[in-house]
Amino acid sequence: MDKARALLSSYAKKIVQNGLVAGPGGNLSIRTGEWMLISPSGFDLAEIDPSQWCAVDIASGRTDAGSLKPSSELLLHLQVYRTRLNVQAIVHTHPIHCIALGLVSRELPVLFPDQAALLGEAGFVDYVIPTTQVLADAVAEKAASADTLLLGNHGLVTLGTNLREAYYRTEVAEASARIFLLSSIIGTPKQLSAEEVRDIQALSSEAYRVSFVQNQS
Ligand SMILES: [Zn+2]
Questions:
Q1: Into how many domains does the chain fold?
Q2: Please, which residues bridge with residue 36 across strands?
Q3: Residues contacting residue 58 through CB under 8 Å, at least 6 positions apart
Q4: How far is the CA of 24 from the centre of ligand 1 (A)?
């Protein structure tokens, strides 16, 4: 559990350093057996000490006695862990380019090989008021078929079989949105076709990259 707490604090810092949230927004968690560890409410992600991650029972939603108050998006994390049993980590951020894209489009086109290998098709969740069970249910429903979800007028949720994978999905999704928006200024971006995406996903080097991400923690 100590290793998990240190890992969470290090990725929380990375999220802030890489500009994936503005101000004190965003939250992240990992599953640890029947429990999850989630960021406390009201903290700048870069300032969470390993001891301050909140332990919450996934089945009941009960916060461990002595824990700080969990993130206001607690319900979203709970609902995804309850319905996607292979998900071990969740990262929720407010990346500028993902939000900008989501204001005008429901799609994040697949543009380059790392995106095809690590994200595939991203899902889209229409705007729902944050922190509610309605948002938690809407995210869990779309999470049945995608590990990367744009939240309209809000941000991004990425899921992973470990925290490293969930985090990289956030980075690559934001890079993809940025590249798409930049190229849209000067023309119509060429997207990879479904066949090109399938070919990339079948490449042994990309398979290696994905398994590398999944096997590190
Ligand atoms: Zn949010």
A1: 1
A2: 31, 56
A3: 31, 34, 35, 36, 78, 81, 82
A4: 10
Ion ligand 1: residue ranges with CB closer than 5 A: 155
How far does the centroid of ligand 1 lie from the alpha carbon of residue 175, in Å? 19
Which residue range(s) make up the domain with 27?
2-215
pLDDT in tens, 31-43: 999 999 999 999 9
What distance in Å separates the CA atoms of residue 4 and residue 10, rounded to the nearest whole number? 10
CA of 211 to the centre of ligand 1 (A): 29
**Do the Cβ atoms of 166 and 89 come closer than 8 Å?**
yes
Give distance in angstroms: CA of 100 to centre of ligand 1. Answer: 14
Element (H, E) at 156: strand 155-160
CA distances from 159 to 84, 93, 179, 188, 203 (A): 10, 12, 22, 30, 23
| Separation of alpha carbons 197 and 122, rounded Å | 13
List, in sequence order, every residue forming a beta bridge with 150; answer none if it has no partner.
124, 156
Whether residue 73 lies in the annotated active site: yes
Which residue among the candidates 34, 73, 141, 206 is catalytic per the annotation? 73
3-state SS class at 146: coil
What is the CA(156)–ligand 1 centre distance, in A? 8
CATH of the domain at 145: 3.40.225.10
pTM: 0.94
- List, for residues 147-188, the tens digit of each pLDDT value: 999 999 999 999 999 999 999 999 999 999 999 999 999 999
